[in-house]
Amino acid sequence: MITLNYEDLISQFDASLVNNLRLTGVKNPLLELWVPDGDPLRSIEGLVHSISQTSRDEPVAIELPLELLSDAQQDMLLGKFPGAITFEMVDDSGPCLLTWTPGATEDKTLNDGSGVMPVEDVSALLDRAGNLKAPRKAVRHLPTEYRDFLLEQGRKIPDETVFSASAMPSLTCRTGSCKLHVLLEPRWDGAQKGADHPIETVTFEGAEPGTVEAGFLSVLAQVSNSLTLSELADHGTVRVIEFLADTCPAVRPDGIAASLVFTEEMRFLTGLLRQLPVAPDHGLTQPGFSPAPAEAWMALSQEARLATLRQHLQGFCDSQGLRQEDVVLDGLVDDLSGWPVRVVVTCGPNTDPRERPGLVRHLEHFLKGKLDRTLIVLYEAAKDSNKIRRL
Amino acid sequence: MAMTDHTDLILDGTKIRWHQDRLDAWRNGERIAPITIDMALTRACNYGCHFCYAMLQENDRKTITGPVIRDFLDDCAEIGVRGISLVSDGESTVSPVFVEAVQHGASCGLSMAVGTNAFVLTKPKLAEILPYLTYLRINISAGEAKRYGEIMGVKERYFERVCQNIRDMVAFKKEHGLSVTIGMQMVLMPEYADQILPLARLGKELRPDYLVIKHCSDNEDGDLGVNYGEYADLTGLLSEAEALSDDEYRVVVKWSKIEAGDKRSYQRCYGAPFMLQISGSGLIAPCGMLFNERYKRYHIGNICDTRFRDIFQSDDYWEVMRHLASSEFNAQKMCGTLCLQHKVNEALDYHVKGYTELSIPEGAQPPQHINFI
């Protein structure tokens, strides 16, 4: 006779769920099919079922807490495993002993002649499944201020039309009377290079001064510096939106700023940029736009960069009312381009674990503003130390 | 209901265009609820698969209890989530709240789905969940017992148990006329090529609705060591496997992802607000590839600590979503390969760039599993 204690099994299983993330479960071949369940009837049924599927020739006794199953629930189980299980009281205060005997009968949870559950049982399940509530509608928040602001912004921006120097390679897009001139860096040697070619200047003409169109084109000209042709084509409109959203919070929608690309005003800009000779899937064949760190950052030695980071980390902690040991610099490593921009930190034990993600985000904003826009902040990686892992 | 009674089953694409109301709200700059949430009920698993991405997703360990999952599902229904797939970074069937989660989610009006190794899904448990599911997908990356044990990190005899469980679920579905779609999925590493045809033939014998063969994802640093260049050599075998399809059993290769290899055409991630992922620890991050502690700046909250409806409305949630969609983020450099949101991202990126309208083609019928985009 094998004897198992139900509460011990539950404890073992729960511990395994947290401590043994792979090959989880109670280390007993009889129980490899068993998963405890919050519903005690379902849980015990699964336990007996697992034993019946895996045991060959030895009876198994399971000690159950006295109050775990009602008499009615015990009767239900006896019906599902007729002749195979018995319940008996060890004494008045428990435990209740459930004993399974091999070979006594078939598992009624498995066989009704058709190889599946009895149809009437399933019908009840289907009734429950079919009587489902319709999903409730989401709460919506509509932005109201950004359209007025854009109109106002358009009126205030003066006409900054600058005509292109004809000696330089340029592309021109046109919508109605508006023309957008994209001047490429002189080293460009033809249209074949296309997508990753750097832009020298973006200018425009033909937009009515004081209109929304003139305002957007003016912003586009400002944000296009140092972009590539593909980046202008792909994200020129979104960069205009980001500029406006950063400049004036009233423009910023509740959700994603980039979604404003679908406003009528922005469609005008997208329509212009779509005329640039950049293939939709150029990203599959050419490196995407990825600005390098500033020369000043790259010119520093690794030691100097780390020293600079430590100095600014101290400044960050001071500004946040944190102690120096609350955010610790672990290192500075290269990204996939080989640029030293991945700042690795950990938080000290006195920081609230729930606050750490926000802290790391704030730190990244801080360092981008103080040192270089390409810096990203990573936390110390958590390793999966399971011995069956290959890492 | 036989699969032939359904409209199209999209396995290599996105269904986001079928949610025009959510797209409209997104275009209006609203805080939209995810259409689909991909999550696990635990980070634990009774298997030890060779290819498992979860080994890269270690984060603080917390337990999703019955009250936590009930509150979460209630919140999902309240804010407008439409489908929950129990997949992600753990084997949800080994969670004590698994059956309750499936049934309660369905009772809230959510479409529910499960991805599983199916080892513990014997008949009694199948009967409790199949009527509530939109689809059940079995992860099985070999068609022979010995290789199954090697690839999935378990005893060889587990293979026969899983095969029997698949036979039982197929019989159960047929017997009771259920609409649930039963699928098998092979995560294909190039070194598993010898199992492509045995598995396709096994599926033909077991009779699920489909077998899908997909690439294996890797993180941005390539820690799993997937050699994407070797997939091209498997084209012939994969085509041969597809040819084993018949009227009621489809073999589908996710060609778009296999052919793309580790390349992305886009840099910004617009898909996360539509398709969120939650770790089996309760951690909410926009993407499973960001579950590891390393990516703490993307961690938004934990449903074990805070109600999901509050996390969803929080500034932290939207700060992270905005960051992913901004020029500060570059999926080509900062993400692992071909993530769950990849097809959604691709579609939205083309839409934002003005190449596509993402409208519903005239006369087109809604596809199956519409709430799993």
Uncertain stretches of 5 or more adjacent residues of chain B:
1-6
Q: Can you give the helix content of chain B as a percent range? A: 25-40%
Instruction: Indicate the mean pLDDT of chain A.
Output: 78
Going across the biggest sheet of chain A, name each strand in turn: 1-2-4-3
Secondary-structure-derived class of chain A: alpha+beta
Work out the strand percent of chain B.
5-15%
N/C terminus separation of chain A:
42 Å
Strand content of chain A: 15-25%
Shape of chain B: globular
Would you report the number of β strands of chain A?
Answer: 10
Evaluate the radius of gyration of chain A.
34 Å
Quaternary organisation: heterodimer
Count of DSSP strands of chain B: 10
**Major beta sheet summary of chain A:** 4 strands, mixed
Polypeptide structure, described:
The complex is a heterodimer of chains A (391) and B (373). Chain A is an alpha+beta fold and 391 residues long. Chain A has helices spanning 6-19, 40-54, 71-80, 119-130, 146-156, 212-223, 229-247, 264-273, 295-299, 302-320, 356-370, and strands at 2-5, 60-64, 85-89, 96-100, 170-175, 178-184, 199-205, 327-334, 340-347, 376-379. In chain A, strand 8 (327-334) and strand 9 form a beta hairpin. The longest helix of chain A has 19 residues, at 229-247. The two termini of chain A are 42 Å apart. The relative contact order of chain A is 0.07. Chain B has 373 residues and is of the alpha/beta class. Chain B has 13 helices and 10 strands. Chain B has a 10-stranded mixed β-sheet with strand order 7-6-5-4-3-2-1-8-9-10. In chain B, helix 4 (123-129) links the parallel strand 3 (111-116) and strand 4. The chains are: A alpha+beta (391), B alpha/beta (373). Chains A and B meet through helix 1, helix 2, helix 4, helix 7 and helix 8 of A and helix 1, helix 2, helix 3, helix 4 and helix 6 of B.
